[in-house]
Amino acid sequence: MTVLAFTLILLIGAYAAGLLGSLTGLGGGVVVIPLLTLCFGIDFHYAVGAALVASIATSSGSGSAYVKEGITNIRLGMLLEIATTIGAVIGAAVALYFNNSVLAIIFGLALTTTALAQRRKHADHTDVKGSAMAQKLKLYGEYPLKDGTKQAYQLTNVAGGFSVMALAGFLSGILGIGSGALKVIAMDGCMKVPFKVSTTTSNFMIGVTACASAVVYIQRGIIVPGIAFPVMIGVLLGALTGARLLKKLDVKLLRKIFFYAILAVAINMIYMGLTGGLNH
Fold first, then answer.
1. Do the Cβ atoms of 239 and 21 come closer than 8 Å?
2. CA–CA separation, 191 vs 154, rounded Å?
3. Is 17 domain-assigned?
């Protein structure tokens, strides 16, 4: 296969990954890494490096839109970024000593958790009594409703959410995915942040977390431009297309199909890791 053919196929595959990731809310990295490792036979470490670059691009694009709409809690995001950044740097440093099999097993387990988290019911948490710590740090906020009014909210258990965020950052550094599911669990489950705010704030944070991990990968020469650049362009274009289609399409069926597809990929990843199928 020529370099041009490889780049074009990779670009198309990354575009499909970004499109599906955007429509299902799982993010492009969840699809990109199986695409690179299982379909193209690329080493897991290089796949993670490419996925991190793609995460930075997509988070920067979509994150700014949510900030403009006034949904993202920037103050909360900046606080929790401290935890995710520390976790991401440690995760990226540790990941370099893991072989492909270990990474594949961890990825498969994280993918399963991510898929299952998409199926759980989410609450708006409108009747939460905020904690003294949240009030002291001025983490309360409000977000716009469809009728133009604004819904105020409070949050609690800042320390618990901060701890889960550190774990989310650690996994992001190891696997190159945004770990959005864990971030949403930290905010939605632990801190009782409204789901719409937690998802948009998570998206806002992903780029910063990925940047912290990417620095370690760049220093070790694991981010290869020939792989990372077409993946970044493809995922970004796919995510932008998905954002437009999301307003017009009923994606419930697609998300249901994609849920089982992701579980199948996760099982395959764990199997390949246990049998050593990715150690080449």
1. yes
2. 9
3. yes
Helix and strand tally (H, E) in the chain? Answer: 11, 2
Specify the 3-state DSSP secondary structure of 207: helix
Q: Residue 28: which of 76, 77, 73, 61 has the closest Cα?
A: 61
Q: Is residue 280 part of a domain?
A: no
Secondary structure (3-state) at 126: coil
Q: Is residue 18 part of a domain?
A: yes
Mean predicted confidence (pLDDT) in 70-88:
88
Alpha helices in 185-224 (DSSP H): 195-219
How many structural domains comprise the chain?
Answer: 1
CB 174, CB 95: distance < 8 Å: yes
Say if 73 falls within a structural domain: yes
Alpha helices in 25-96 (DSSP H): 29-34, 44-69, 74-95
**Rounded to whole angstroms, what are the CA distances from 7 to 19, 108, 226, 233?**
18, 26, 8, 11
Q: Could you report the per-residue pLDDT of 207-241, keeping only the tens digit for each?
A: 788 888 888 888 888 888 889 899 889 888 887 78
0.85 surpassed by pTM: no
Residue 64 pLDDT class (50, 70, 90 cuts): low
The whole domain housing 152 covers 3-275
